[in-house]
Input
Amino acid sequence: MKSAKNVKKDFNFWQVDNRIERINEDKGLIILPSPLAWEKFAWLREWFKEKPKEGYFIWVKKQLDFPLSACVTIASAKVKQSLTNILVIEKNIKAKANVMCHAAKNDLAGTHVAIGKLVLKEGSFLEYNHVHKWGEKDLVNPDYQFVLEKDSRLIYNYQNLFPAKKLNLVNSVIAKKNSSAQISFVVNGDNSEISLNEEIVLKEENAQAVLKLRLVGRKNSQITAKSRVVAKAPVKGHLDCQGLLVDEKSTISLTPELVCENRMAQITHEASIGRISEEELNYLRMRGLTESEAIDLIVSGFLKA
Amino acid sequence: MVSHSLLKIENLFVKANDKEILKGVNLEMRPGEIQALLGPNASGKTALCQVISGNPKYLVTKGKILFKGKDITRFSPEKRADLGIAMTWQWPPAVKGVKLSLLLDKIARKKVELKEADSLLEREVNLNFSGGEKKISELIQILSLNPKLIILDELDSGLDLKRLERVVKIIKEELLKDKKVSILLITHSGVILNYFKPDLTNVMVNGRIICQKKDYKKLLALIKKQGYEKCKKCKKGF
Output
């Protein structure tokens, strides 16, 4: 068995372009290419009717003492990836996953399409840190579904500070009894066309979710974000959507939507879009930062706040 | 002719939001000198500080600002900070998501340790800071800039007596020990003058400096007795 130290050093799963570069399994950890997993496990065929073309299947069956790590790289020009990624956390297991999808160079003009399903079984916990880093000509379209079984807990942090030319991000969460989700999307638009669509369905009693969006529009970026929380039982949910416009040509459109189907549910939202405060900018410049350094600092603060 | 001034302001006219707020200001400071600028609210004191520091919100329409003999009237705020001009704000804005320690890492010309600031370093700059905490935050920032001219805008506002004494002690220990730093004190109440004993005290009313006196105690006593309204009519200003 590999020591935890070695596994930490390497990715548990690493795909470059359309080939799998590395798979590191461990005791209680099953990792397979998703087409192979689809053939092997009948229950996956209920989730996905068509056989996946590529991508990872990660099944955490026992408690791990290290964070999982997966990486999908575009390394060659004009590569088209069409991934199906599956992550299953078994009952009462606590796991952390660090996942990176990126382009190795700025001008590869690749296409990254990903369908994902992440299932947290009863009583489990997953901290899923998802980092995207793309080149200025890439097209990226991930569509992920999270299923939170009873008493499970999800922390999902999506960060994209180097966006693709076009990013179309779709996420849906189904939260069952007593489950909770804390979701954060941090996207820095930089001459990009970005579309985010999130839907959280709080399906059963005491399910809770907080969705936080922090979007920055720079250098002629066009960003639209539609975020929806549906309360079907006595649940609690909150949307916190904030946009920051850095230049005159960028636009941000935020559409928070609350759908309440139960009179005991509490769902709320807050949304705002602002510009960089002249006062903050001048304050930092009077401390010796150039205008561009001051803007970068304000933006980095906004994305962390 | 070689200039011995650190700061020289010549016939300065300034507009903000299309309104003229400084109307021919003249001021000269030597290296190591402490001067005070007294005046009622809305007389233009803070505007003058901001203009000296280069805040682009203020538009100089006439006149000059010279620093170490160099015309800095059109210099950016960051260039002025590089030259050694630093100002504490009376109401500094919060910078959300940016820890004070990170800001200090970015701006510091020299490392400054201030135990009063320790509890603030991991907090977001000026966010939910009390009046006293804001002054400490401002102070550690300007100390780390290693300035030649410090402008203290209403240093005593928001500070209780004990904290004010501590802040004054820090400034004296860190900045005034070698007599290399000049200080321009901005105040409307004058309380702070007793701590710094300025070499020269200026009175600003309605966008102009109308009086300069060496004896700040006498000047304060007169203003206390007669108010700033009398200053406008007084012919013995300079």
About this structure: Confidence is low (pLDDT under 50) at residues 1-8 of chain A. The two ends of chain A are 41 Å apart (CA to CA).
